[in-house]
Write a structure and sequence with these properties.
Blueprint: H1 13-23, E1 32-34, E2 44-48, H2 58-67, E3 78-82, H3 85-97, E4 101-106, H4 111-119, E5 123-127, H5 129-138, E6 147-148, H6 155-171, E7 177-181, H7 186-198, E8 203-209, H8 214-221, H9 245-251, E9 258-261, H10 263-277, H11 283-293, E10 302-306, H12 313-320
Parallel strand pairs: 2-10, 3-4, 3-6, 4-5, 7-8, 7-10, 8-9
Antiparallel strand pairs: 1-2
Length: about 325
Amino acid sequence: MQQVLPEIRPISIEAIEAARERIKGTVIRTPLIRLDHGVPKPEIYLKLENLQPTNSFKLRGAANAVAMLPADRRAEGVWTISAGNAGQGVAYAARQARVPCTVVTIDTAPDTKVERMQALGARLVKASFDSCWEAMEKREFPGVRGEFIHPFDDDDFVAGNATIGLEIVEDLPDVSAVVAAIGGGGLISGIASGIKARSKRVRVLGAEPETAAPGAASFAAKAPMKFGRWQATFVDGAGGKSIFPRMWDRMKDVVDGSIVVTLDEVKRAMRMLAERSRVVAEGAGALPVAAALSGKAGTGPIVAVVSGGNIDLAKFAELIGAV
């Protein structure tokens, strides 16, 4: 039977503040540091979500979503769909809550992320990218039971992500733009909700790789779009084949656009983060830095959200050594 989904509604400041209180014992308030990239402009700051216990922002939304589960629905456990970071976040939060966890994992997920999900106690079910994308729309997968925690289209998940936005405007009141990767849209929707609740003047921009940029296409068309030239790359934590209509409804009134960057620009950003700030960022985590360095987000102050650092170090060395 078709599941009736709740109507999309704005994430209120009350919900975001409640989420911040709810997850404060699980997540950390990540630092905001200036990036010395050799020239005065653009002025860029890094929001280091790669320093969360699971090395990804996803723990914020996951911890809030798991905490919001009614006691009578916890017995069968929880499940989610993930290339790695959402799976780690849900598995970490579920382990803390002593709730069983299953992750339907995209079969191209890096071994590093797969191993970490397993180490956190998750049961893994591997599937193709297309099967996982379809399951995210249908919110069901054959043979998997429990309470489904959507990795981006979930009010509680988005409210958890929105706490990043509150921290940014509190730590850098004169910020002019915030850039975050677009994957499913839960991160950018959350951050924008938190930012715009405090300051309407701040621009919130997405960042996408040239190989997977449905967000930019959607903003250009002012409607949710598919990306026909999608390719799998090392930027595995961002860039989908389409923007879900429900996620477009979440984004369109709070996000101001999306910047597309090349894969070489992402590699150069990864290298710069390592050389200048000693930050290890996965591809999706370096996307916003590449977008900020392009100048398309303005002269600053700009905050680039380093969303994650879950990458195999040998692969990381290979990528940054190639530019």
